Amino acid sequence: MGKIKSYLDWILDKIVTISLMVVAGTVVSQVFFRYVLHDPLVGSEDFAKLFFVWMVFLGTAVVTRDRMHIQVDYFVDKLSLKVRKIVDLGMHLLTLVFFAIILKYAFDFLSVQKGMRSVGLDIPLAAYSCAVIFGSIFVLFYLLHSLFRGKKGQKETPETHILID
Predict the structure, then answer these.
(1) Cα separation, 30 vs 44, whole angstroms
(2) Among 27, 94, 100, 129, which has the minimal tally of Cβ within 10 Å of its Cβ?
């Protein structure tokens, strides 16, 4: 499982990085063609939007894995280790429920988009919903992985995260 997870981590990191470069390159190209050459690129907005959505949802999985979401933990840090464990477990469970709901509605939305295509690129609109589905699945995977890993008695110090490194 460890090799599979590390390979998955590597792939996700690369996809998010490439998506960021594609979005930035597309937007810069779009501005250049529109304002310098006065000949806008057709479909570039759809292209940038598609990669941006994928970057956001897969990036959400990456920051979930690395516990890098923005959080205000001033009050949580003042709690005892036992209470912090309970708060951390509660936050993990709430996040699991939240992304399970997102996943359910993403599948519902995917069925609504069946047959619909984007105007600029003529690609299926379902490509956007697939980003939400894959991102949510990866977030759920990383949350479950950290919950089960935390139960195996990892060494904990007040300076480290409670359930995962």
Answers:
(1) 6
(2) 94
Computed over every residue of the chain, the mean pLDDT equals 88
Residue 78 within any structural domain of the chain: yes
User: How far apart are alpha carbons 74 and 77 in whole angstroms?
Assistant: 5
- pTM as predicted: 0.83
Asked if residue 30 belongs to a domain, the reply is yes
Eight-state DSSP code of residue 38: S
Torsion 118-111-137-144 (CA) sign:
positive
Residues with Cβ within 8 Å of 11's Cβ and at least 6 positions away in sequence, in order, are none
Residue 157 lies in a domain: no
Residue 121 has pLDDT above 90, yes or no: no
> How far is it, in rounded angstroms, from Cα 60 to Cα 69?
8
- State the Cα–Cα distance between residues 127 and 72, nearest whole angstrom: 34
Q: How many domains does the chain have?
A: 1
Q: Given this model, what pLDDT does residue 118 score?
A: 87
Any domain includes 113:
yes
Whether residue 57 contacts residue 131, with contact meaning beta carbons closer than 8 Å, is answered with yes
Domain range holding 9? 2-150
